[in-house]
Amino acid sequence: MPEPAPGCLLIRMQVSGICGTDKHTYQGFTAQYGGDGVPRTVPFPIIQGHENVGTIEAIGGDGRFTDFDGAPLNVGDRVIVGPNVSCGTCYYCRHDFPYYCCENTVDYGNNISAKDPPHLFGGWSQYLYVVPGSFVFRVPDELPSEVAVLTEIMAVTVGLDRAKQISAFPNESFRFDDSVVVLGVGPLGMCFVMKARMLGAGTIIAIDLSDFRLEFARKLGADHVINASRVSERDRVDHVRELTHGRGADVVVECAGVPSAVREGLDLLRLGGLLLEAGNFSDMGEISISPHRHLCAKNVRILGIGGEEPAAYGPSMRQMARYMRHYPLGDFVTHRFSLPQVEEAMKKSMEADSMKVIIDPWFESSSGFTNANRDNT
Ligand SMILES: [Zn+2]
Ligand SMILES: [Zn+2]
């Protein structure tokens, strides 16, 4: 058990999510690019886990530590630890770019080696060591930890807030009542479905390979769903056109996390539409597009979103707490696994009948639980 140094915290973990990035890492897609354009690789061995909810076990130094908004934190407070620590001094930090542009970012569960003491730099662990400069957010009392664990991915939907700002210019998406297609409704895509509705989307269309996920997307606000395992890509484009006055979608959010979905996203857009690319968090390879047909002739906008913004955490937590009345957010976590079951958990998170899968280091069970309400879907 490490003693936290000044400016550091020790967190007793409650739950930690399996994120799309974790799945990519597990599959061997470990290259991620930062602001310097150089791919970073993962310094194995690591402890994975960056969607972290826990309580403060100890505060280093004089016992003072403030949350992201400057309020004092105490031992016992339930918190989320922001997964990324930006350096604050590189060109991109100094010019207010998001953390994933930082040239020296430290990422829990991803780029801090567990070889280096005090070793505990990921959330799939009983304790997490919080390094100086980390952003820590107090979880509202009314928000269960099993919902708070969604905060990071919910914060990534800040991409739609950015799209909304772009719509201040004439004819630009994402305006009130605009149609939104979400390609891939795993946990991240699901959060985009919710956020699109919260921000005033019109018709929302979810596309996925899993009927289970598409049914859940309906509960979170999707008006139409298309199962891509039964409908060809050509027919998907035609169907989206039919549902959008023959024009194509005003906004497409790509969360499938496979390169080919980017081309499909461009095909699904109307002229002058906006593609929000949030799915390919790791380098998954390349695709070919027609620069004429997909870009110029389509007068298209592409907004690359490589992660969340720290200021999006508080709003995301408060809005999820508010929307628990309208959305079955308690059903979002479908499986909970203990630490020795982490590989089983990883496999489950990639199966069609799972949504958010979490690691609970204090959980004692021989099999991952399935949320009771899930059988009603
Ligand atoms: Zn994540
Ligand atoms: Zn930086």
pLDDT < 50 stretches: 371-377
SSE class:
alpha/beta
Order of helices and strands: EHEEEEEHEEEHHHEHEHEHEHEHEHEHEE
Number of DSSP strand runs:
18
Q: Major sheet, described briefly?
A: 8 strands, mixed
**What coarse outline follows from CA principal-axis ratios?**
globular
Give the strand content.
15-25%
Bound molecules: zinc ion
Q: Assign a percent range to the helix content.
A: 25-40%
Rg on CA atoms, Å: 20 Å
Mean pLDDT score: 93
Q: What distance separates the N and C termini?
A: 43 Å
Note the total helix count: 12
State the oligomer: single chain
Describe the structure.
The strands form four sheets. Strands 1, 4, 5, 8, 9, 16, 17 and 18 form an eight-stranded mixed sheet that branches. The chain is an alpha/beta fold. It has helices spanning 20-27, 91-94, 145-148, 151-156, 158-166, 187-198, 211-219, 233-243, 260-268, 291-296, 313-323, 342-349, and strands spanning 9-17, 32-33, 39-40, 51-59, 78-81, 84-85, 106-107, 127-130, 136-138, 180-183, 204-208, 224-227, 249-254, 269-277, 301-304, 333-337, 356-359, 369-370. It is built from twelve helices and 18 strands. A hairpin with a 5-residue loop joins strand 2 and strand 3. The protein is globular, with a radius of gyration of 20 Å. The structure holds zinc ion (2 copies). The site of one zinc ion has 8 residues, from helix 2. One zinc ion binds next to helix 2.
